[in-house]
Amino acid sequence: MRWGALFDDFESQLTAAERALVEDQAGDLARAEQALLTLADRLRPHHGAVELLLACGVRVKGRPVEVAMDWLALDARPRSFLVPLPSIVTVVGLNRDARLEVSRVRRELTLGSALRALARGRAAVTCHVDAGRAEALLVSGVIDVVGRDYVEIARASDGWGRRQVEGTTVIPLAALIAVSSLG
Questions:
Q1: Nearest alpha carbon to residue 129 among 177, 60, 83, 85
Q2: Distance between CA atoms of residues 146 and 119, nearest Å
Q3: What are the domain boundaries of the chain?
Q4: Is the pTM higher than 0.70?
Q5: What kind of fold does domain 39-182 have according to CATH?
Q6: Cβ within 8 Å of residue 63, ≥6 positions away
Q7: Nearest C-alpha neighbor of 166 from the set 147, 144, 150, 182
Q8: How far is residue 96's CA from residue 57's CA, in Å, rounded to a whole number?
Q9: Stretch 125-154: mean pLDDT, rounded?
């Protein structure tokens, strides 16, 4: 009997078992890390176009330009969209990369923060609103007020100006599907 060959065989079996254990542990770690990722983490490093299906069947195709914890800014030329992440039903075209947000300031940018920035710029917007029916309700105007859980849109008779305000529409943020403006 060749003892050397027998020990070599035992050693190769032990090495194979150790390698299999390390591979299993690496797979477990990868799955555990993946389970901690959010949709924002997946959207953040993506630079190409994606197609979003939003609530009420609203479809938007464009390139993510800013991703916060609960909203996404999308360049869908000639328009830009501000999309609350909870209104996203599906994303098509997303790569496999992910990136955590390391900036504390960026982590704290809420949907309200983004809407207040649009309000400061007096940008003309169209709000896509989930009104509980098959298609989104469209409300156009200028963002006048942003509260904790609502946005108020001023509608003007002269188009988008503020001189001839016809009235306002208050939209709960929970019903907001997207806000679009000319980019």
A1: 177
A2: 8
A3: 1-36, 39-182
A4: yes
A5: SH3 type barrels. (2.30.30)
A6: 47, 48, 49, 50, 74, 75, 76
A7: 144
A8: 25
A9: 94
Question: What is the signed CA dihedral for 92, 93, 95, 101, rounded to 10 degrees?
Answer: -60
* Rounded Cα–Cα distance for residues 83 and 78 (Å): 16
Show Cβ contacts of residue 81 under 8 Å, excluding neighbours closer than 6 positions: 60, 62, 72, 73, 74, 178, 179, 180
Nearest C-alpha neighbor of 66 from the set 45, 39, 89, 94: 45
Coil, strand or helix at 35: helix
- How would residue 108 be classed by pLDDT, with cut points 50, 70 and 90? confident
> Is 152:167 a contact under the CB 8 Å cutoff?
no
Distance CA 126, CA 141 (A): 7
DSSP label of 175: G
Q: Dihedral angle at the C-alpha atoms of 136, 173, 118, 152, nearest 10 degrees?
A: 90
Select the more confidently predicted residue: 91 or 101: 91
- Distance from C-alpha of 11 to C-alpha of 13, rounded to nearest angstrom: 5
| Predicted pLDDT at 3 | 63
- Burial environment of residue 136 by CB neighbours within 10 A (0 to 12, 13 to 18, 19 or more): buried
